[in-house]
Amino acid sequence: MPKLNVQGVGEFDVPAGKRLVQALVEDAKTDQLHACGGHARCTTCRVRFVEGEPDKITEAEQETLRVREISEPGVRLSCQIACDEDMTVELISRLEGSGRADQGSPVDDEIQPPPVWTTK
After folding, report:
1. Quick check: 11 pLDDT over 90?
2. In CATH, which of 3.10.20.30, 3.30.300.20, 3.40.605.10, 3.40.50.880 is domain 3-97+111-119?
3. Peptide bond into 54 cis (omega under 30)
4. Is the pLDDT at 98 greater than 90, yes or no?
5. Quick one: which of 8, 49, 68, 104 has the fewest CB in 10 Å?
6. What is the pLDDT of residue 120?
7. Domain locations along the chain
8. Cα 65 from chain centre
9. Which of 103, 107, 90, 119 has its CA nearest to residue 19?
């Protein structure tokens, strides 16, 4: 079972393959945003990888980061990442202080849109 370390929150065992955005909300009990419901249409589910950033990236994530001009090292969309390995992340997009009414729409168990993988 992969370990998810969320800085300032704790370390959690998460089922292999679980979407990172779901692990952050369900397992770590954080207020991670996901306004578009995990479809790589927005960037509210951003996290910053401290360790364990995956080498692969979906084409949808890559395109959304490009269009939104997000190029900071280690910043990724948690809705497009499966927890396949141990990782440490920093929350950078939370409900607290966002002015939003809620975290976002429900998130499917499978990465959406269906992933087309490439390397970073």
Report:
1. yes
2. 3.10.20.30
3. no
4. yes
5. 8
6. 81
7. 3-97+111-119
8. 13
9. 107
